[in-house]
Amino acid sequence: MVETTLHGGEMIAWILVFHLTGLVFWLGSLLVVTHVLAVHSEEPSTEARATLGRLEMKLLNGLAHPGAAVMVISGVIMIVENPQYLLEHWLQAKLLLVALLVILDLRVYFRTTGFLAGRVELRRRECMALHGGISLVFLAILILVLLKPFGSRIRRAFAPVCFRPRVGLHTGLSPDNAAIARMSGEQV
Predict the structure, then answer these.
(1) pLDDT, tens digit, for every residue of 92-109?
(2) Which pTM value belongs to this model?
(3) Which of 102, 74, 82 lies closest to 152, judged by CA?
(4) Per-domain residue ranges for the chain?
């Protein structure tokens, strides 16, 4: 008989796969867009500016925003599956930082669309400041998720690992009695 349901741990693992995939698409694209915008803001060629503008919009609409949607949806599903996580201070801080990332994303998007329409003047300095801000918020989120400061009550990312070889299975890593005797100089 084939089991069609996932166990709780397996389900959370699959949700995490989607959450991390969304993270890569969202933040990776935002970082690329801000860097391309910095180049675009100083580009004198009209043809190159048009090409860079198309690239920026493709990254935002094709990767960053779908990635953000996948990340937010999978995050909500994880919280619904484990509502006790909402009591964790590290998660509360992470959610505030995610809200800040959404604000930075919207700023990048509206500044980009305004720049492409000729309504907004962008400077390289502003683009690189957005790039740095997004990077710092991402680093803060990583610290919160991996180190779980503020006294995590549920689990830590790095639990101590105990290696216990199975009884009766020879791993090839431990010497047999004859080898031990040879090393100690005894006769077998």
Answers:
(1) 999 999 999 999 999 999
(2) 0.76
(3) 82
(4) 8-147
